[in-house]
Amino acid sequence: MIKKTFCFIQQNHISERGGGAEVQALYLSQQLAKSGFIVNYICRSISSQKAFTKSIIDDVVVHWLPNKPLHSIANLRLIYKTLVKIDPDYIVERMSSSFGLSAILYKNDHQKFIWICTDNNAPRRFKNIRNSFQKLNFAKIVYNFPASLSSDFARQIAIKYADVAFTQNNVQENILLQQFGKKSQRMVSGHPRPEVVIQPEKRFHLRTVLWCGNLGSHKRPELFIELARIFEKSDLKFLMVGGHSDVSYCKSLFKNKPSNLDLTGQVSFGKALEYFDEAAILINTSTSEGFSNTYIQAWLRGIPTIVMGADPDNVIEKNNLGYDIDTIEAAAKKISLLLGEEDAYSAISKNVQSYANLNHTIEVMVENFLRQINENSALPK
């Protein structure tokens, strides 16, 4: 029997840098390789010495590109040429960039392009131009406009002509349908089960409240800082994992930080994961999330989650995984409630972990992925 071949095209590999999209692409590619498929992965490298070379990482062949902008025609050509050499049956893009254009130009009727939505803005037309107007001053908008426009056109072609599209929640599904007239399947995110499971009774006494993510303003880290300040005279510890490239922004953000708040700065994905073993509660202060990796990382460890609006499809509230609240004061009350009574904490912690084991393991993710593309005729015959 001839083994089918997958090829992922991503901005980065999480071993070097990246975020949630790269984490999920890593896990999906690894598990597909373990399941007997041939798996390749095309991405940029931050090392000029690695460009144009290949590495094997967990049975996945990684093809490194030069670290050029996403809209670089040179890199799009390299992706195309690499696809010609690999000749994959399925090309997977778990992000929204111009890279997908190479897949559309390359594939034939027997090869399928699968696009996986990562965030709630990804299905929107002219996403990059919208972001420029929201984040940049006028001079930078003008300077970046050609690149933003070309990137948007390229990624929109990729989305439009994808053989199968996956979305993570109802918001993404509806936007994709409205803006592209394209139906989508539901993508389940997954993570490996932790090697060591800390029992709820012990986790309760850790007394640590965790925040983990990029310190960008859209994540609203200042709300977590204010939350820590409320508990400054308590026995609770607050831990903020993550960083930001703007040093002056960080200095301003953490000016007069409360004494019970510890900061790690930017750390590797593996190191960030270790901090979950120290936490009793996870806090997310974003207004919107596609489906945050931190949720699954927390749930598989039995860590209840408190969010401030970022509850995709109300999964947290519906399944008693924590709380979705509106204000800092409400968050403080829920923290006090969770860490005020050990038996109550243990009950919700066990429920959280049970839910994650049923719905968000690596095995569940890959089984769902393969079933969906089979049912939607994405697999070549």
Distance between the termini: 12 Å
Strand content: 15-25%
Q: Which regions contain 5 or more consecutive residues with pLDDT less than 50?
A: none
What's the total count of β strands? Answer: 14
Series of secondary-structure elements, N-terminal to C-terminal: EHEEEHEHEHHEHEHEHEHEHEHEHEHHH
Q: Characterize the main sheet.
A: 8 strands, mixed
State the helical fraction.
40-55%
* Anisotropy-based shape: globular
Name given to the CATH homologous superfamily of the largest domain: Glycogen Phosphorylase B
Count of DSSP helices?
15
Structural class: alpha/beta
> How many domains is the backbone divided into?
2
Strands of the biggest beta sheet: in what spatial order? Answer: 3-4-2-1-5-6-7-8
Mean pLDDT across residues: 91
CATH class of the largest domain: Alpha Beta
> What is the CATH T-level topology of the largest domain?
Rossmann fold
What is the C-alpha radius of gyration, as a whole number of Å?
21 Å
If classified by CATH, what would the architecture of the largest domain be?
A: 3-Layer(aba) Sandwich
